[in-house]
Amino acid sequence: MAEGKKLIIYGAGGLGKEVKALVDSINKETFEWDFVGFVDDGKTHESVLGGLDILKNYDQGIYLVVAIGSPKTKFEVTEKISVFSNIHYATLVHPGAIIMDQETVKLGEGTIVTAGVVLTTEILIGNHVLLNLNSTVGHNAVIGDCCSLMPGVNVAGGVIIDDQVLVGSGANILNGLKIGKGAKVGSGAVVLDTVKAGDTVVGVPAKIVK
Fold first, then answer.
1. How far apart are CA 113 and CA 44, in angstroms?
2. Tell me, what's the pLDDT at 42?
3. 145 close to 74: Cβ distance less than 8 angstroms
4. Is the torsion defined by CA of 96, 97, 98, 101 positive or negative?
5. End-to-end CA distance of the chain, in Å?
6. Which residue, among 134, 70, 81, 133, has the nearest Cα to 109 in the 3D structure?
7. Taking a C-beta distance cutoff of 8 angstroms, is the pair 94, 112 a contact?
8. Taking the model in full, what pTM does it have?
9. Three-state DSSP class for residue 139
10. What are the per-10-residue average pLDDT scores of the chain (210 residues)?
11. How far apart, in whole angstroms, are the C-alpha atoms of residue 86 and residue 83?
12. Is 207 exposed, middle or buried (0-12, 13-18, 19+ CB in 10 A)?
């Protein structure tokens, strides 16, 4: 059997365990990843290798993916990891995800595409994006770096989501809208208007909350 690429998951919580299960699903199709263990600065168990500092002990052949839901925290962690020149980022796509047009859908490094996700055509996904279970993204959409789309999110065609945006489970974002940097969209919200940077919107239709 050919050797897989060595992979570390940063984040040993629930999402980290889900990402490990995703890796196992990929390896059932083809042995692509050799899971080394978790890295986490806040959790300890038998699979946790240590905190971020341990990354300097690995050679150029190591890959890493950041399993953190919070966009802000994810950004902060990736900034810290950027000092380690030996680290590559893995892009993980569950075999149960559907990418309709492989040629025009672009996925950034460190992005995680889970089971049931559907991406149509001419879509640009940034780095370290989480597309969680059964989310859909329509044509010509753009999703920036370190965003997290939780389960069941529907992003319509032409939507632009800036960096570090959190979209809660079951939210719907209608065609052609823009979601500004660092914004939050509540679970189940239906977004009918542009959301400015840093705003939080909830409800049907979505309204700004303090």
1. 26
2. 85
3. no
4. negative
5. 55
6. 81
7. no
8. 0.95
9. coil
10. 84 96 94 95 85 89 96 97 93 98 97 98 98 98 98 98 98 98 98 98 95
11. 9
12. middle
